[in-house]
Design a protein that fits this description.
single chain, FAD/NAD(P)-binding domain, 2 domains, seven-stranded mixed sheet, 6 helices, elongated
């Protein structure tokens, strides 16, 4: 039994690391498995101003504090990608690309990844004008004209960030109104170097070997417009990465783990937390809440 963890958490974003904190505080032996970098997508956020009790911090700082808190309590982390979970009754076997780890309970906290446009040559132009992270790549296009595609909070935040360093920022959204916070929309409306291109889709990427322009098509009348830009930052939502675990947890039609606010999957000993589960609101606070709920539920099942 010495080699069996009480809780294995798949993913070390805000939900996963919060689960580790609560697991350790409950006296459980906790392991986090992370494929990339701990912190998840929040590490790409330059400023966090909506987390209760913290007036302002960066995503990277927030992630680092979470990591130090979790590991300081005794949680362990191994940088390996989990590829499947096998249920063997009282023991769950979590397979990574390199090893197999055993646990009494598992929390799936895989988060989500950026959704691509699905356009011809999109993948080819990644790093040559196509980006899914404005805070990561925006400085490469300082003083140039760029575009952001999307209408949610991520897209609006990207546009605000880029407007500080780029000559012109076009915001392209398929609807006639944004879905993001009205306060950010108002900030953008006041900027002289920001132009809204609403009720439109990006339909073609132009340029070889690097992006030089985009074709935008109106959803109302089908008219097209070519906009010269050096970069297109895609922020049209996210996709979960749960298909590897479909044998042990139910997935909804979009691929999210089908679970409610109790983070129960319906499969004994397997829980979920964070952006990878079915939910309406995906925010830093809801991810942390999920992590706490899932860890306490897992701890109670072990007890």
């Amino acid at each position: 039994m010495a080699n069996i963890w009480d809780i294995i958490i798949i993913g070390a974003g805000p939900a996963g690391m919060t689960a580790a904190i609560y697991g350790q505080r409950a006296g459980k032996k906790t392991l986090m498995l992370e494929a990339n970098m701990y912190g998840g997508q929040i590490i790409n956020t330059p400023e966090i101003e909506n987390y209760p009790g913290i007036k302002k911090t960066s995503g990277a700082e927030f992630a680092q504090e979470l990591y130090e808190q979790a590991t300081g309590l005794g949680a362990e982390m191994i940088m390996e990608k989990a590829v499947s979970v096998e249920d063997d009754g009282d023991v769950k076997h979590v397979h990574t690309e390199q090893n197999v780890y055993d646990a009494k309970t598992v929390i799936i906290a895989t988060g989500a990844k950026n959704r691509p446009l699905g356009l011809d040559r999109e993948e080819q132009l990644i790093g040559a004008g196509i980006s899914y992270c404005a805070t990561c790549d925006g400085m490469f296009f300082r003083g140039k004209d760029v575009a952001v595609n999307g209408g949610g909070n991520t897209a609006l935040g990207d546009a605000l960030f880029l407007a500080q360093i780029c000559s012109k920022v076009y915001i392209i959204h398929r609807r006639d109104q944004f879905r993001g916070d009205e306060s950010d929309v108002e900030k953008l409306q006041k900027l002289d170097n920001v132009e809204f291109v609403l009720s439109s889709n990006v339909t073609k990427l132009i340029g070889d070997p690097k992006l030089e322009a985009i074709e935008v098509t109106s959803v109302k009348d089908g008219q097209t417009r070519e906009i010269p830009v050096s970069a297109l930052f895609v922020a049209i939502g996210q996709m979960p990465e749960n298909k590897e675990f479909a044998n042990v947890v139910p997935l909804d039609p979009k691929g999210y783990v089908d679970a409610g606010e109790d983070c129960l999957t319906g499969h004994a000993g397997i829980f979920t937390a964070g952006d990878c589960r079915t939910k309406t609101v995906r925010q830093l606070t809801t991810a942390a809440a999920d992590g706490a709920v899932a860890a306490l539920a897992a701890s109670a099942e072990i007890d």
